[in-house]
Amino acid sequence: MKTSVVIVGGGPAGLLLSQRLHQQGVENIVCESQTREYVLERIRAGVLEWGSVEVLRDSGVGERMDREGHVHDGSDIVWAGQHRLKMNTRKFTDRPMMAYGQTNITEDLYAARDAMGGQIIHQAQDVALHDLTGDRPFVTFTRAGAQERIDCDFIAGCDGFHGVSRRSIPDGERSEYEKVYPFGWLGILSETPPLPDIIYANTERGFALCSQRNAMLSRYYVQCTLDTDINDWPDDRFWRELKARFPKDLADAIVTGPSIEKSIAPLRSFVVEPMAYGRLFLAGDAAHIVPPTGAKGLNLAISDVFYLSRALCAHYRQGNDAYLESYSDMALRRVWGAARFSWWLTSLLHRFPDQGAFDLRAQQQELAYLSASESYMKAVCEQYAGLPFEV
Ligand code: APR
Ligand code: PHB
Hints:
Shape: globular
CATH superfamily of the domain at 5-50 and 60-70 and 101-178 and 268-351: FAD/NAD(P)-binding domain
CATH architecture of the domain at 5-50 and 60-70 and 101-178 and 268-351: 3-Layer(bba) Sandwich
Radius of gyration: 21 Å
Largest sheet: 8 strands, mixed
Structural class: alpha+beta
CATH class of the domain at 5-50 and 60-70 and 101-178 and 268-351: Alpha Beta
Helix content: 25-40%
Strand content: 25-35%
Number of strands: 20
Strand order of the largest sheet: 6-5-14-15-16-13-17-20
Bound molecules: adenosine-5-diphosphoribose, P-hydroxybenzoic acid
């Protein structure tokens, strides 16, 4: 086979890139190791920056999002069992946010790719990237026992944190920056009406979060230790613990019900530099992981794809490689902005096992200052709402 761009990985980053390239007439093939059903079943984040909303609309996948997504003014933080403050992105940045699940976005992207006749290969095994620094790179894989090969001009590595693309950059040519946090999030999904607002809690029992997917689908999390066994957490224990981490009025307002999904996610920050090597360009979780606090993971995948699709389209349509050459630096500036913010919000809202009395008071003081200072809050809202894309 032959195409212009091989996209390794058919998660949100790979599908969105495929869609945007196809819209501009740039031929591409997506090569995904799992089945479509498997990709669609993954439950992940659900908060979109307005810049992401605009990119999705521009990519022709905004219709259901605009119908079903919940537009809101930002999220709240409760702390010390009583104080409540709002990261009001509409007030401080003129930009609202939207709650709309990644699962739905992936469904919308698959529907759009099907409608345009996009080529997606599923269950590609042993995917390998070749000749990345030459003029004609290629990708090999096996499908149904047979070896296949796709020749191309460029490879987009959109295959997530555990994919093969990042590891195809030789060891000496890449630097990795990592921070592993000493706790995880135990999360559930339940078919109950969510609270009207997304609310983060800093409490002495640990962090908690009330979030939402739609009018009848709620997402909740509690901070847990890394050795937590999910079997020790039947629904009633989860609900009790969640409510214990919120002030009484909010706890009383939480509508409980059976969980339809329950999982534990460890928290990690990770960035690889550079995000390009020869004719390989990384986007999304293949290049970076942020802890979920602040919901930046999906938004970063979308901004990487915005930059990369612009760069590839400029190459094919105008013969201009300036954006391809600056892709890694430009994407990394935004990635580090979000990586720093996610680390900061994680540090502000969680209880750390080694946190001493001084650290606790400093954390409380930071929340008090955030409540008191409009200029500090504005800087936080600017980042929560999402930094602008570079021109
Ligand atoms: N070959 C082909 N495909 C692969 C390979 C491989 N060797 N390894 C992994 N994949 C596929 C996975 O099966 C998955 O479908 O690549 C896809 C990567 O998708 P995601 O992990 O969802 O990553 P990305 O598209 O970058 O989306 C980032 O996901 O984790 C969240 O918070 C994150 O919301 C953000 C989003
Ligand atoms: C979620 O809804 O899954 C979510 C919301 C806000 C976050 C993180 C996750 O900061």
